[in-house]
Design brief:
It is a single chain. The protein is globular, with a radius of gyration of 19 Å. It has one domain. Helix 1 packs across helix 2 and helix 1 runs parallel beside helix 3. The protein contains ten helices and no strands. The relative contact order is 0.16.
């Protein structure tokens, strides 16, 4: 397989799974999974596409030379650890999280989305959120804010991270052994980069649309004398 450099034009370098894996290897994968799972600033990182690409590259024998079972085990552990940090952070910060001002790396709407998701699905949200980009970063934090029983959180956390970490990686691994995938792996990796960028792009478009929908008449309205 050619060098990953030509793929950099397909999206931001930090969101290019192949570049990340070729540059930082297994340690980079685990660090990103950990950050995306439990750190507020990790919501933009390419979790799903990173694991899928890792499975593809293990099957292809490039960059990653660890056995599949070890990669899956370490990914699941990193994701579980990240969620634990997120839960403890939420438990410590508490409701103050909902009063935190917006910044370049923090948006209240992401917290609200995760809160609504948690309110709708309860303990199951810890598992379901793993498969929803952005929401999965904030859900364990919301669980901590809500003082969810730790044992319940831990059980669902282990189930969710194992299903996600092992499932997505194994899917990439087995697809990577299909002849069609092997012969078109560059195109598939470009598609993965696009998928990585898509959730963030949609989020930005929604934010701009909401800002544009603010009624200028209301903001300019002056009480009559």
């Amino acid at each position: 397989m050619p060098s990953p450099q030509p793929l950099l034009a397909a999206g931001p370098t930090v969101l290019n799974p192949e570049w990340l894996i070729s540059t930082f290897g297994l340690i980079g994968i685990l660090a990103i999974v950990f950050a995306e799972s439990g750190l507020l600033i990790g919501f933009f990182l390419p979790g799903d596409s990173l694991l899928f690409t890792a499975g593809l590259l293990v099957a292809d024998g490039r960059y990653l030379h660890q056995p599949l079972w070890l990669l899956c085990l370490l990914v699941a552990v990193a994701a579980i650890a990240g969620d634990q940090v997120g839960y403890l952070f939420g438990k410590r910060v508490g409701p103050a999280l909902f009063r935190r001002p917006n910044s370049r790396l923090f948006k209240q709407e992401n917290v609200q989305r995760a809160n609504q998701f948690f309110a709708r699905y309860g303990a199951r949200s810890i598992v379901l959120a793993r498969f929803v980009p952005i929401v999965r970063t904030f859900t364990p934090i919301i669980a901590g804010v809500s003082r969810m029983h730790y044992r319940t959180f831990l059980i669902f956390n282990v189930i969710g991270e194992t299903l996600w970490g092992v499932g997505v990686t194994v899917l990439g691994y087995f697809l990577g052994q299909i002849a069609f995938v092997k012969s078109n792996i560059e195109i598939i990796l470009i598609g993965i980069v696009v998928v990585s960028v898509l959730p963030i792009g949609i989020q930005l478009l929604r934010s701009r649309r909401r800002a544009a929908q603010v009624d200028p008449v209301d903001t300019a309205r002056v009480p009559k004398a």
